[in-house]
Design a protein that fits this description.
It is a single chain. The chain is α/β, with parallel strands linked by helices. The protein folds into two domains: about 170 residues, Rossmann fold (3-Layer(aba) Sandwich); about 100 residues, Rossmann fold (3-Layer(aba) Sandwich). It is about 35% helix and about 15% strand. It contains nine helices and nine strands. The strands form three sheets. The chain has a four-stranded parallel beta sheet, sandwiched between helices. Strand 7, helix 6 and strand 8 form a beta-alpha-beta unit. Helix 1 crosses helix 2 and helix 5 crosses helix 6. The longest helix is centred in the middle third of the chain and has 18 residues. The protein is globular and about 55 Å long. The protein starts with a strand and ends in a 10-residue tail after the last helix.
């Protein structure tokens, strides 16, 4: 956890904003957690062993984690990835030796899942299909790890948690555990405001194939964000040298838990609300936030 007091100095002194520094994980994202959890769970249950190939659909980050751990553990890795994923992600996957099958960008992660299911159905003995969108080990990794860390590192003072929705594992697992610690904690999910968007890794749940692990009842508030706003925020923060972020998805979290605490919902991202926009431009919530 890292405080971002330097860029939130204009907020009331009673408000503290932290980001979860998941970029410090070996693979560079929060997705290292579910990837290693799904591999470990599969090995324990006899679903994954030497000679099997790890297969999954990914928008990038979980795939990078699978590829990294696969290289270390000696597993071949095959990943179905929308072809419009960033060049950087594709290069990293290639460096780890993963086989990448690019899928229709218009179908997003849903299309990648369809291709992964076809491969598994054709050769079930060849693959361990991780199926991160429906694998309970995904959200359980955040239930067992991310949430307790947030609780301990904030000394139980966390009041709001914000996360984007892709597989929904981070949001589901962390929110579920935090609410067990304190039912008054507000959990806020974030997603693109349109089925056609440029925020890699996130789903527009109303039009996408909904992950089996997603629990919408956990969200106290559901926020939507435009791709252009996310890109503008990323550019702004990079120019101000607050943090150089490689993934646009990190900026979806600027639909702020702080605004949820300080302002009524109709002021969170209202063009007429100069105060709300000013606060948004001063805060970064990376990965997960409380």
């Amino acid at each position: 956890m890292r405080s971002i007091a330097r860029v939130t100095e204009e907020l009331p002194s009673s408000v503290e904003v932290f980001f979860k520094a998941e970029h410090l994980n070996p693979g560079g994202s929060v997705k290292d957690r579910p990837a290693v959890a799904m591999i470990t769970d599969a090995e324990r249950r006899g679903l994954l062993y030497q000679g099997k190939t790890i297969l999954d659909a990914t928008s990038g980050n979980t795939g990078i984690a699978f590829a990294m751990f696969g290289a270390v553990l000696g597993y071949r890795v095959t990943l179905c990835l929308p072809s419009n994923a960033s060049v950087e992600r594709k290069r990293i996957l290639q460096c780890y030796g993963a086989k990448v099958i690019e899928t229709d960008p218009a179908r997003g992660s849903d299309g990648a899942q369809e291709e992964a299911r076809k491969l598994f159905a054709a050769s079930p003995g060849k693959y361990f299909y991780a199926d991160q969108y429906n694998n309970d080990a995904n959200w359980q990794s955040d239930y067992e790890g991310t949430a307790p860390e947030i609780w301990d590192q904030t000394e139980g003072k966390v009041t709001h948690f914000v996360a984007g929705l892709g597989t929904s594992g981070t949001f589901t697992g962390t929110s579920r555990r935090l609410k067990e610690y304190n039912p008054r904690i507000k959990t806020i999910s974030v997603q693109p405001n349109s089925p056609f968007h440029g925020i890699e890794g996130l789903k527009h749940m109303e039009t996408a194939v909904v992950p089996g692990i997603y629990d919408p009842a956990l969200a106290d508030a559901k926020l939507e964000i435009q791709t252009e706003d996310a890109q503008t925020m990323m550019s702004l923060l990079s120019r101000e040298r607050v943090c150089l972020l490689a993934q646009v998805r990190e900026q979806t979290f600027v639909q702020l838990c702080v605004l949820h605490a300080l302002y009524p919902p109709d002021q969170w991202w209202s063009p007429s609300s100069a105060t709300a926009r000013s606060v948004i431009q001063r805060i970064i919530l990376g990965g997960s936030c409380c």
